[in-house]
Specification:
With about 325 residues, this protein is of the alpha+beta class. It folds into 2 domains: about 60 residues, no CATH class; about 210 residues, Aromatic compound dioxygenase (Protocatechuate 3,4-Dioxygenase, subunit A). About 30% of the residues lie in helices and about 20% in strands. It contains 8 helices and 14 strands. Strands 3, 6, 12, 13 and 14 form a 5-stranded mixed beta sheet that branches. Helix 1 runs antiparallel to helix 2. Belongs to the intradiol ring-cleavage dioxygenase family. Pfam families: Dioxygenase_C (PF00775), Dioxygenase_N (PF04444). Its cofactor is Fe(3+). GO terms for molecular function: catechol 1,2-dioxygenase activity; ferric iron binding. One of its GO terms (biological process) is catechol-containing compound metabolic process.
Length: about 325
């Protein structure tokens, strides 16, 4: 990056390219020069990504005859996206989500494999400050919504229990808000981090999540209004599971029957992740599960199946190599 030294601008130290470039006085020459310059990229993967990015980006500009005004509007839009980001709000992730890019990257990197639990998008509301909770404890403070108990086992694809797996989970409250969306957030709520026991079991108290609108007060919200799309997500419970030797899984469970299951604003729903909530009406069972009052709660039971890291790495490498070959042929 250029800097300043004794009041003078300083270059980044990289010399001119070791080849001659024609003056970029036509669209074709501009694109051809950019392709030549991508070959200077020392890292093979970065060079491959940049070459394809240039090909598609320049093709888009040509095919649409992009106007200067449209380009300027796009730059201003992306600037607003960046300015909207804060330590607890990620508008760029939200933009990626509503364009289907997050779901596409997730699907390519985590194809269904050997009966493993499928992944889903991370979403923009994950935080690093989830409190540690013990099995059976609650991730939600009292009054945050209808009681729900979540339980299952963390298993390998061959059925072997995985002990001490980290299960991080977060959700909305009954108002359709994550804790980070409240003006006053004195502590994390409706989120927690626990570990599976020696038999792979995990369980915790939560609340039934509700369908909610993704933030509509920023540039992404304006984008959806401009293209005639709703900004609703079906109700869901986020989970992120990690264990040594296994591929990290980011997923979510979607209770059946939600109005927005088929038109999720961020394309996160997969058929295998739609779950049934059982209604338990038994006061003794409610007390046993740790709920302080009432006789009714919802029960979500679902095992989580992880893929060993070596199998996941092998599968991804094979798919990436095949994709690279196909891309090289098409360029």
């Amino acid at each position: 990056m250029a800097g300043h030294d004794d009041g003078k601008a300083v270059a980044n130290g990289i010399p001119p390219p070791p080849f001659q470039l024609p003056t970029p006085d036509s669209p074709d020459v501009i694109t051809a020069n950019m392709f030549k310059l991508t070959e200077l990229t020392p890292d093979d993967r970065k060079r491959f990504l940049l070459r394809n990015l240039v090909a598609h980006l320049h093709s888009f500009v040509r095919e649409t005859s992009l106007t200067t005004a449209e380009w300027d509007q796009t730059i201003k839009f992306l600037t607003r996206v960046g300015q909207t980001c804060t330590p607890i709000r990620q508008e760029f992730i939200l933009l990626s989500d509503v364009l289907g890019v997050s779901a596409l990257v997730d699907a390519i990197n985590n194809p269904p494999e050997n009966g493993a639990t499928e992944s889903s998008v991370l979403g923009p509301f994950f935080t690093e400050d989830a409190p540690d909770v013990a099995n059976g404890d609650s991730i939600a403070s009292e009054g945050k919504g209808e009681y729900m108990y979540v339980e299952g086992r963390v298993l390998s694809v061959d059925g072997t229990p995985i002990p001490n797996a980290t299960v991080e989970t977060w959700e909305t409250d009954a108002n359709g808000f994550y804790d980070t969306q409240y003006t006053t957030r004195d502590r994390p709520d409706c989120r927690g981090r626990l570990h599976s026991d020696q038999d792979g079991h995990f369980g915790y108290r939560a609340v039934v999540p509700v369908a909610y609108p993704i933030p509509g007060d920023g540039p992404v919200g304006d984008l959806l209004l401009g293209i005639g799309r709703h900004n609703m997500r079906p109700n869901h419970l986020h989970l992120m599971i990690e264990a040594p030797g296994y591929r990290k899984l980011t997923t979510a469970f979607y209770p059946e029957g939600d109005l927005y299951l088929e038109s999720d604003a961020v394309f996160g729903v997969k058929k295998s992740l739609v779950v049934k909530l059982q209604t338990i009406k038994d006061e003794a069972e409610a007390r046993k599960r740790g709920f302080p009052k009432g006789d009714t709660f919802k029960l979500l039971q679902r095992d989580i199946i992880l893929v060993p890291e070596d199998l996941a790495a092998k599968a991804f490498k094979e798919k990436a190599e095949a994709a690279a070959k196909n891309a090289a042929v098409s360029l």
